[in-house]
Fold:
Amino acid sequence: MAAVTSLADAVSEHVHDGDVVALEGFTHLIPFAAGHEIIRQGRRDLTLVRMTPDVIYDQLIGAGCARKLIFSWGGNPGVGSLHRFREAIQDGWPVPLEIEEHSHAGMANRYVAGASGLPFAILRGYAGTDLMGVTDTIRSITCPFTGEALAAVPALTPDVTIIHAQQGDRAGNVALWGITGVQKEAALAAKRTIVTVEEIVDELRTPYGAIVLPGWAITAVAEVPGGAHPSYAAGYSVRDNAYYQHWDAISRDRTAFGQWLLALIDEHAAAEAAR
Amino acid sequence: MTVDERHTDVTDVYSADEMMTVEASRALAGVASCFVGIGLPSTAANLARTTHSPDLVLVYESGCLGSKPDALPLSIGDGMLAETATSVVSVPEVFNYWLQAGRIELGFLSAAQIDRRANINTTVIGSYDDPKVRLPGAGGAPEIAASCGEVIVIVRQTRRIFVDRVSFVTSVGFGDDPGDREKFGLRGRGPRRIITDLGILQPDEHGDLVLTAIHPGVDVEQVRAATGWDLRVSDDLRTTPEPTDTELSVLRHLQSTMGQR
Structure:
């Protein structure tokens, strides 16, 4: 049964140095606040997993939290490059970043295998691409029924998956709707799952077609209104496109990024002191 | 309100990018479904849907099937793509049930580099282990290039982008040799048209790109100079029609709405 707790306690208890951590969200419902909490708590040597590492991963990488990234597309959606990500790969700053690179279809199926308790997934993919030569976790397999050659990719089973959802209840059941990406699979593939929610309600009030993850499949739930900002939570907030556009200038410059990082940590210290 | 009532500021001056986007939207005439990446492909696909192809089904990799946005999205997961979709499915579903199963007629891609055999690079410039420029990576493109019925690429034409051989094959066009698509088991027909700001390139029967059209005001030598290999020119080279007032006014209106909702 999920513990309903604070974000700080959830991260402190369940995210450890050296863990494999997935913060998933496909433009919508990206768990930014949880990523910021990981930065504040100074986690190191994480293997970060994400189909679409975007600004929150740029921030985690720039802050030196990660030693490896497993991903399929790293960019600032609609804006351009992630400069902290690029600098970590090109120049090893602030720490070298090892990469394990896939396609979206491969990553999605790796989570499906993880959620399904299977060792690997198969797909029609990667054939003829140079990804096959640089990524050891892409192999070929022959279908035992048809003889067709298919791609095989190993299951992703993060130590912790963190997602953001619209609602949770007091029993720790959570509901998410709108574009739900790969979050259900990422949550069920993980050993531990933390869910931040816009609000905790007495009874979930969800639109038709919402995903409800039962509390017994989740480790911790924390109420964090606005926890997806500058991403959004359908029904609660809209995407802060300006933040993504402004991030470009901060991300380009080590000094500007350093100032941003100090402000993030100071903001937290001020909030703690005011408690 | 008709389009013409809404926009009265159209002039007969247009940019090369506008020409490219308009020509890409025209290429979608008669197409039933289109897997759309963000940026130029999304702009062109929405221009097609707003003008000549109101029933064109737009599929976004965020899981939105049949989105009908009235403003251009800034990202593939903007809320309006879900709100205006016929159905919103998970990311594993969009790739497995819809793309991999061969349900999408056309894929619309862009490129950081493209070569004489229409192979696409969006991964690195230079060597993989010590890259000159680290690019975003594959995203959905390798499987879009493999499994959509056919592919259209929309990309600006310069020698830096149009190279003899891409540094890294992220998505397969026609591989190295004739027959490579069959050898790799790729089910779609691959890139049929590369639409640039200068003209259109199409593969010959062996998969080598040939210049088949130039845009008004562009000359062939200009295109060859913007190409990093000895570009062949079709005997039937045509000139694309200029954008109409309607195409331009709708395009400009769409662009003014980027990320506005």
